[in-house]
Design a protein that fits this description.
Blueprint: H1 2-5, E1 12-14, H2 22-25, H3 31-38, E2 43-46, H4 49-62, E3 66-68, E4 73-76, E5 79-85, H5 95-100, H6 104-115, E6 122-129, H7 136-149, E7 157-164, H8 171-191, E8 199-202, H9 208-217, E9 220-223, H10 233-240, E10 247-251, E11 264-266, H11 271-283, H12 286-302, H13 305-334
Parallel strand pairs: 1-2, 2-5, 6-7, 6-9, 7-8, 9-10, 10-11
Antiparallel strand pairs: 3-4, 4-5
Helix pairs in contact: 6-9, 7-8, 7-11, 9-10
Length: about 325
C-alpha cells in the first residue's frame, strides 16, 4: 500500500521474529496478501541468512516471482526487493554508564541479601517474558535434572528466573504460566531445605537497572529459546560483564547462537544436554570464562545496534543510487 502511494520511495522492512518454512507458512489463510505486501519493500531484513532462505522459498512456493538466489533478490510485479540478513543487537554501554554501575561484588551482595540466598552459591539467572517460545519450562527441567545428576550442588546452586507477565488475557499464556509455577513448586519441594530453595521465580516486571544488577551478580545466564529471531537478553548479559566473568548457556534456536559461538550452545529440547551444560558452566575455570567472555564482548561491542541500522541504511543508499543510474540509462535510451 505504501509502494502504491509512493512508487519511488525506498522502503525498508525488518522482520523481527523467525520466518517459518513454506509448509508452516502455508497454514496462513492470507499468505499471498502478506507476501505481496512485504514485497512492496525495497529492502527486507531478517536476523539470519536461514530466515532469508525460508522467506525466499516461501515466495517461490506461493507467488509468481523471479528469485535470484545469488544476489538475494526477488522480482515481483516489475519491482525488485533485496532480501538480506541484518542481525540486530544492543547499544553498547558507554564508559560513563559502566563507571556508574555498582561493582560486581556489590551487585552480588544486594541480590543474595534481597532473595535470602546462601553465601558462596553458584547463581544462574534467566530473564524473559512469560512466553512459551522462551523455553522456561525446558530450562527448569534441565535444572531439575542437573540436581538429580549432581546432588552435591543441592544447597549450592540457585536459579533465579525473571518472567514478566505478558498477554495474560490469552488462555494459552495463562496456562503456560501456571505450568511454570507448578514445576517450580515441584523442584523446590524435591530439593529445598530449610533456608534454601533452588528456584526463585520472580513473576513481575524488572527495569533495566534491576536486570543489569542480576546479570552482574550471576555466575551463569541461561537462554533456552525454542524459536527466537535473535534474543537480546544474551547480548545484554555479555555487555553487563565488564569483569570478563560469567558463562552464557545459549539455545541453538536463537538467532544469536550464530554470532555468540563462545557460549555453551545447547538444544533446549535435550534436557540431558542442557543439564550437562549447566554443570560444565558451574565448574568452568575463571581463565576459560575470561577467554570466552572476552570473545563474546568483542563480538557484541563491534556488531552493535548502530552497525545493524547503519548496514541497512548503507544498503538503501546503494540501492537508491543504482535506481537513479538505471533511470538515467532508460531516459537516455528513450531519447
Amino acid at each position: 500500500m505504501i509502494r502504491a502511494k509512493l512508487p519511488h520511495a525506498t522502503i525498508l522492512t525488518f522482520w523481527h521474529i523467525p520466518w517459518p518454512n513454506p509448509e508452516s507458512f502455508g497454514i496462513c489463510p492470507w499468505r499471498r496478501e502478506i507476501l505481496q505486501g512485504m514485497l512492496g519493500s525495497t529492502i527486507l531484513g531478517f536476523h539470519t541468512r536461514f530466515h532469508c532462505k525460508n522467506f525466499m522459498e516461501t515466495v517461490d512456493r506461493y507467488l509468481e516471482a523471479r528469485i535470484e538466489d545469488e544476489h538475494s533478490t526477488i522480482s515481483f510485479q516489475d519491482k525488485e526487493t533485496l532480501v538480506e540478513a541484518y542481525p540486530i543487537s544492543i547499544e553498547w554501554p558507554t564508559d560513563a554508564q559502566v563507571a556508574a554501575w555498582p561493582p560486581v561484588a556489590e551487585c552480588r551482595r544486594r541480590v543474595t541479601q534481597r532473595l535470602g540466598l546462601p553465601e558462596g552459591l553458584c547463581l544462574a539467572v534467566g530473564v524473559d517474558r512469560f512466553d512459551y517460545t522462551k523455553g522456561i519450562l525446558e530450562r527448569l527441567n534441565a535444572v531439575e535434572r542437573m540436581l538429580d545428576k549432581a546432588p552435591e550442588w543441592i544447597g549450592r546452586f540457585v536459579f533465579v528466573q525473571v518472567a514478566a507477565p505478558t498477554r495474560g488475557a490469552l488462555d494459552e499464556y495463562r496456562s503456560h504460566q501456571e505450568r511454570v509455577e507448578r514445576l517450580t513448586e515441584r523442584i523446590n519441594t524435591r530439593f529445598g531445605r530449610p533456608g534454601y530453595q533452588p528456584v526463585h521465580l520472580l513473576a513481575q516486571h524488572h527495569d533495566s537497572d534491576q536486570v543489569n544488577e542480576l546479570f552482574r551478580a550471576a555466575d551463569i545466564c541461561i537462554v533456552t529459546s525454542l524459536h527466537d529471531g535473535m534474543n537480546l537478553v544474551c547480548k545484554e548479559f555479555v555487555a553487563a560483564r565488564d569483569d570478563q566473568q560469567g558463562v552464557l548457556v545459549l539455545s541453538r534456536f536463537a538467532g544469536a547462537a550464530r554470532e555468540l559461538t563462545e557460549a555453551l550452545i545447547v538444544n533446549p529440547y535435550h534436557v540431558e544436554e542442557t543439564a550437562d551444560a549447566l554443570l560444565r558452566a558451574a565448574v568452568m575455570p575463571v581463565a576459560e570464562q575470561r577467554e570466552r567472555m572476552a570473545s563474546l564482548r568483542s563480538t557484541v561491542r563491534e556488531f552493535n545496534v548502530f552497525r545493524w541500522a547503519g548496514r541497512m541504511l548503507t544498503d538503501a543508499g546503494r540501492w537508491r543510487l543504482r535506481a537513479r543510474v538505471e533511470a538515467r540509462v532508460r531516459r537516455f535510451g528513450e531519447s
